[in-house]
Amino acid sequence: MHPFSYTRAAGTRQALDAGRAGGRYIAGGTTLVDLMRETVERPRTLVDISALPLREITVTRRGGLRIGALVRMSEAVAHRGVRALYPVISQALELSASAQLRNMATIGGNIMQRTRCAYFRDVSAACNKREPGSGCAALHGVNRTHAILGTSDACVATHPSDVAVAFTALEATVHLLGPDGERTVPFTDFLLRPGNTPDREHALRKGELIAAVELPALPRPLKSGYLKVRDRQSYEFALTSAAVALHISGGVIREARVAAGGVGTVPWKLPAVERQLIGQRPSHALWTRAAQRAADGARPLQHNRFKVELLKRTVERQLRVVGGGK
Ligand code: SF4
Hints:
There is one protein chain. By secondary structure, the protein is of the alpha+beta class. The protein folds into three domains: 1-52, Uridine Diphospho-n-acetylenolpyruvylglucosamine Reductase, domain 2 (2-Layer Sandwich), CATH 3.30.43.10; 57-112 and 162-215, Uridine Diphospho-n-acetylenolpyruvylglucosamine Reductase, domain 3; 223-323, Enolase-like, domain 1 (2-Layer Sandwich), CATH 3.30.390.50. Helices cover 28% and strands 20% of the residues. It is built from twelve helices and twelve strands. The protein has a five-stranded antiparallel beta sheet. A four-stranded antiparallel beta sheet has the order 9-10-11-12, sandwiched between helices. The longest helix has 18 residues, at 306-323. The protein is globular, with a radius of gyration of 19 Å. It binds iron/sulfur cluster (SF4). The site of iron/sulfur cluster has 14 residues, from loops.
């Protein structure tokens, strides 16, 4: 591990000043400390923001939920409002990591976690994300777990967060705090596809931090859920996943929010699937037809062609679980 200094911010202003001066924010530390041990990350200054007042879950005026960035994953899972209104969120969190990690890791840190690409974590391998311009060892290496959507010639790594897939499906908003005040960014614009600059992963400006994620008020009743497909049943990242939320009224699907994980360089919204669903009556034939659009635009690699079919089946199954029908 490289030498670094550590500051504990007592308040928001102190944190933002330290962030503007180049400090790296840390809260639960469940990703960053690992990466520092492996020398993948080498921050010179850590700014501990754990004491900031960003640990509440509140109902918004519009009837949505605002989840503070420092809310622990386990706290969000246990929150009655999250469980009742957005089961897709609590399910995605419960299927993430171990109980110990969920007790430490925060919602903000979960969104900001870095890829599980093995080459990214091996400092002897070429990796444009870790070292811009060095190449991408995964392109012609072992790429079974890598992305099939949103890739570029510079990087094909997946984003590892489960709850970010649920936030993408629900069309959440990210609230950011920075030296110039507060601003909001649609969640679907917050995480960046790699393009030619895979080292740029998010829309945060220098010194900014995540204050909260806001879930929109959606028409009720809203049924939702998260399905994660992986090589083993616990403590594993997704090969594919599907977050689905449906508002069905009068026997017709009025709202459909669908996103996929484990397949994209960012959590992958599926508008073509959603369009197939809206205005239709739930049925198994509809789920099958809609899920055929889940892999539109996919560019599989040598070892992950199986993800194309697996993604369609994952989406179809979760549509059936959430939407029912015959
Ligand atoms: Fe690095 Fe991305 Fe290539 Fe993995 S896929 S080696 S993270 S550039």
